[in-house]
UniProtKB/TrEMBL annotation:
It comes from the Bacteria. This is Acylphosphatase-like domain-containing protein. It comes from Embleya hyalina. InterPro entries: Acylphosphatase-like_dom, Acylphosphatase-like_dom_sf. Gene3D superfamilies: 3.30.70.100. Residues 1-56 form the Acylphosphatase-like domain. Signal peptide: none annotated.
Length: 64
């Protein structure tokens, strides 16, 4: 997951049914402080990375 300042980019891998369920729940089960305006799907090559990471947001994102 990467917070670009213009939105959040999430790459999800798994069985098609699990990915579809994740996609469905992004809008319905988001934290109360999250504002999900839209979700865009894009198929990418599978990279096989396991786990979950959230890289630091750019330092200037919250500046003045």
């Amino acid at each position: 997951m990467v917070d670009t300042g213009a939105g959040v980019v999430v790459e999800v891998e798994g069985p098609p049914a699990a990915v579809a369920e994740f996609r469905r729940r992004v809008g319905t089960d988001a934290p109360p402080s999250a504002a999900v305006g839209s979700v865009v799907d894009e198929e990418l090559p599978v990279d096989g990375v396991a786990g979950f990471t959230i890289p630091a947001s750019p330092a200037d994102r919250f500046a003045g």
